[in-house]
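Continuing from the previous page...

OK, I double-checked the sequence for UDP-N-acetylmuramoyl-tripeptide--D-alanyl-D-alanine ligase against my notes and this is the correct one:
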Amino acid sequence: MTLWTAADAARATGGRATSDWAASGVSIDTRSLQPGDLFVALTDARDGHDFVADALAKGAAAALVSRVPEGVADDAPLLIVDEVLPALERLGAAGRARTRARVVGVTGSVGKTSTKEMLRAALGALGAVHAAEKSFNNHWGVPLTLARMPADADFAVIEIGMNHPGEIAPLSRLARPHVALITTVAPAHLEAFDSVAAIAREKAAIFDGLEPGGVAVVNGDIPTAPILVDAARAKRAAVRTFGEARRNFHRVMEVRLSRETTVAQGRLWRQKVTYKVRTPGRHFAVNALAVLGVVKALKGDVALAIGALGRWEPAEGRGKIEMLSMDAVEPSMSVELIDDAFNANPASMAAALEILAATEPRHGVGRISRGRRIAVLGDMLELGAGETALHSAIAELPSMGAVDVVHCVGPRMRALHEALPEERRGQWVETADALATEARGLFDAGDVLLVKGSKGSKVSRVVDAIRKLGHPLLTELEGLS
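Thanks. Re-ran it with the corrected sequence; updated C-alpha cells here:
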C-alpha cells in the first residue's frame, strides 16, 4: 500500500523530488528499514546522510535529504529539502491533516508507554489503530509516528514525552489530539525542573494541542491534579478524572492481584465495569480504567474494549513476567522473572516493588527450602539534587517489608543499600556487568526476581544473563495467547 507518493511528499515538505517514486513506509534507521520505505536522513549521533547509499541498496523507495550524499548516483530517488527534521515535522503534520482518525495523546511521568499499548489493544477492537511500535515520543518520534499514519486509520495513539521544559506543547500541537490522557505526575527529570509542580505544568501542556471540544483524562489522585485540571479547563476541555479516590469521575473500586493477572471493578462514570489485564499491578488497574475512560470519551464500545484489554500484557523491560526453567528435565526447578529494566523513577519503582510483594514464591523446590522475593535495583537517573534522598527513601516503602533480598546497582543506589536493614541487604555493585557475571548466584528455584532500573543503569544486562541461564517455560498465561 502506498503511504506517500513523490508528489504528495514534496508538496507536504516543500521539497523537490528528483524522480517519481512511491513509499509504503517511513524509516530513520537502516537496521530496521523495509523495502519501499522513505528513508529520512536525520542527524543525531551520526549524520543520516552517511547511510543513504546503504538505505537505497536495501530497497528504500527514496531518501529525504538536505543534500545529495557522497556515493549516491545522480539519478537516485531523493526528496531534497532545506533541513531534514523540519521537513519530517511538515510530513507528520500532513499525515495528521489527511487522516480521518480520532487521535489520542498520552503523556505522564510513569506508565505512558504501557498505557499507549493498552490503548492500542482496546481501540483495536473498535477499528484500525495506528501507534508507534516503540517509545517514539520525542521531537523526532512524534512527527515520525504521524508521517507513518495511514490515511484510513480509525484511531491513532500518540505518545508524547519530555526531558526539558517546553517540549510537550509543540508536539501536542503537531498531533492535535481529540483526547489527551495524563497517566500521572511524579519526580522524574528533576534535573531539568525545580519541582514536581513544574513537571505537572509541563505535562499539562499536552492540552495546548487539543482539538476544539476535546477531552482531558487526568489522574485525580495525585497532589498536582488541580494543576492539570485547571490547565485543561483553560483550554475549554471536558475534564474526566480517574483514580481510586471517591471524588474521581472514573473510579477504581476494587483490585485483586494474582500471579498472572489484575482483576478490577470500578465505575466508568455511572457504569459498573469489571475488567482485567494479564499482569499483576495496581497501577495497571488504574491506567486500564483511564484507557476505558478514553474509549468512553470517543464514544466507543466499552464492552469490546474490556475484552481486548483482557488479552493485553506488557512488553519486555516494562513489567513483563516470565517463568524460566533452570532444569531441562524438571520444570518445577524454575524462577519467576519480572523484567522492568527499561525505566525507573520513585513512582514506578514503588509500583514494581508492589508487584513483587504481591507475587508468591514457591517453597521446597530449590536448594534453599523457602522461596524468596529478590529485587535487583539499578540507579534512577535524572532526579537532580535530591537523588540521594529519593534513593534511600525506597527502603521505607511498605512493600519492602515483603522483599527478602535487595541487590543494588550503581553509585546512586548505594544510598538505598546503606538504608536497608542488614537482613535484606544483598550486594552493592558499581555496574550492572559486575552483577551479571554473578547472575547464577542471585537466585534459586522457586524465587521471584524483580529487575528494575533506569535504562542508563544497564540492569537489562542482568536480565539477559538470567535468561541465558534457563529457558522459557510454557505457562498457563502464555497458553492463553
